[in-house]
Amino acid sequence: MSFGSQLILIIIHCASLFGLAISGLLSLILISKRKKLIFLFLSFLFVGILSFVYYSGILFFIAGIFVMFFFISLYLFVFQIELFGDKERLDEKLNNNIKGIIVNIILPFLFCAAIGYLIYNYTSDFLQKVSGSGNIFIIGLSDIAGKFFTNYSLILIIIIAVLFVSFLWFIIISLEEK
Amino acid sequence: MNFQFIIYFNFLLFLMGVFGIFYSKNIISAFVSYQFIIISATINFLSFSQFLYQRPLWGGIFIIFGIASIYFLMFCIICYIYLKLDPLDKEMLYREFRLFKITRSDWWGEDNI
Amino acid sequence: MDLIAYINEKINPLQSIIVLSGAIFISSFFVVSKSKAIKRFLIIVTSISLILAFYLNIYSFISMGNFSNFLLSFETAQMIEVGIILFSALNLLFFISIYKVDSNHFIKILILFLFSTVCAVFVVVARNFLLIFTSLTIFILTIFQLVTALNLKMNKARPYILGYFLRPTLTVILFFFGFSLFYGAADFKDFNQVLQSEYISNPLIVLALIIFGIAIYLYFFLFPFQSPYLKLIKRGEFSSNAIIWFLYFPVGIFMFLKLNDLYSFFIEKNSLYLSIFFIVITFICIFAGSIGAFKTNSVRRIISFLFLFFIGIFILNISMFSTGIISKSLVDWFNIGNVLLVLFSFIPIYSIFGVVEKNTGSDSIENIRGFGRSNIYIGINLIIIFLSWSGFAYHIEPFIKYFNGANFLRIGIINIILLLAVVIAFIFLMINIFRIVVQFYRKPIGGVVEKIIFPKFLYIYVTFFTLVILVIAILGLLEVLNIDVGIINFKITQVYFLR
Prior knowledge:
The complex is a heterotrimer. Chain A is mostly helical. Chain A has 7 helices and no strands. Chain C has a two-stranded antiparallel ribbon. Chains in contact: A-B, A-C, B-C.
């Protein structure tokens, strides 16, 4: 691979990781639900770009179908509440007291920071010794389809069966029981 | 790109998800936190496939089946909220819903409906 | 016959799944029907298919032995676990038929129930990581669909169903992350490969195992995460509670048993800090379960707390293994024995108390005052079933062996603390049993106990469980007292068939 294309890959890699971190942080912190979902969707787009950087772009398209359904349903729910709900009841009461801030923000942050530090200490020796393969292998749809139908056909059957059974469930919950 | 950096970045995303689970005050935040753990696992699979293995199909197949099943589960949960819950219950989930809430009745005494 | 044998060999070890799928296929032709005759017909078809699946499960193992391929593994342990799931499903069919037969969606619920049983069997026989993960996720999805379908009329339960099922969703997401770490350590596809390789002490695998442990702890709603479970059980419909207790929890236990070998590798090293950690969790689970059951007057909450107490016994078994009191094979036997004890006791108890609550309108413990005076037969059966919990005292036997053999000055303090935990847990359990039994013979509150009318089938149903418990209790007692009756060669206290 030429130096130029390697450089482009590194830049896209860094940019997508950075974008993922920033959009992720914003979706966690922002209070408005719509903005949360918008930034979450952005972070998924950055994951999609990363999948291309890791030569697995086809996975983004296949997995994206299921992610799309989830996002549409989540956004419909938020949209319905915000459109038809009582504005006063919906406003989140911000926890301004000190006890609320300590319990909800500082303690979890310290807990996660402590765990992160422990993980770093525990894995740093091992990860420094890891050496990569350096080979580029682009995953194609034919490779995946081949593996599906030779080794994992049973799992495919289970997933298709659950789709049929879920159809019955959708009928149950959408019909009014009198 | 440094392999070690990517792994630590994935752990950071995972810990962001864990922080979000404790911090979340409503059901949307809870789902957002779940997404971070899923994203970190997905990038783990992708980066391990790319950096460590010769023919990395296992990671890709795991991602497809894993994401299909997890997102279908979450999709069904959201559908249930959307179709079956009263408007008041929906607003309650939207406004205040903690994943880990401890009340006295969970340890001691009665839980009056 | 050759054709049947050929087909049997081809579909091994999925015979039980094929039979249940056949029942689903037959039921799907009658999905829109609301006729009572068709509902009865399908109940009969489902029960026959479950019994046939149970038989084929054992027959295929005896005739064809162990089976193992890339995706599946079917050995002694899996045969027993699939048998337990099918037995449990047969009993759940009883609950669903009694409480939901008048529902317009009964046949759809039956199909959902059969499919969740199929997924549960897949979780047990799965060996490949991908199949384990996918079948576990789909199992949780089908249980969610089943519980929501069963609670259609329970408006108060709906938000709590969500709160409940967001936890197993977190469990599968943590499993997804854990499997990604396994992939980072080495290109493993199943737990046996991990166990037999040199990579087992790899930091990524250890981290993944810790994450799996946390995920399973959340799955079981153990203390202090029990809130959604208790709230749902209090408000849920009878058959949905039964589904949660007798299908959701056993599958979690079997999922935990898959990881048990890996955890044993680390626990066997007898690390002091690990033992202390497990003992602390054991104390919390056992005491919180017993005290919570004692301090409430709601029968549903009593049963819920005691159920969590028995789930805590699994952690007690790990603690005893971590201190070296018991061996790995004894841990496996204690675990399976605990599952069987829970199922054989809680199923009849809940079937009786469910009828009591349905007739009296509330689940207060005051409603069973004088119950033993007016329903002598059921009262005696219940007392025998409650007393079967005293089989938990068998956990003290390894301690007796240990203290007999050890030098008094060298007995570890950890072992004494653990023995104290077992003894106090046993005492609390007896207190809870005593409290309920006393209620049976107290003077009844006027007009309440007379409302309770049991269906005739329930007498036969409860008698079956009582007889099984009595037979096992008598055989066990004879073995403990070293009396050889000579009727059968089977020794309950020395069953090491899982290895």
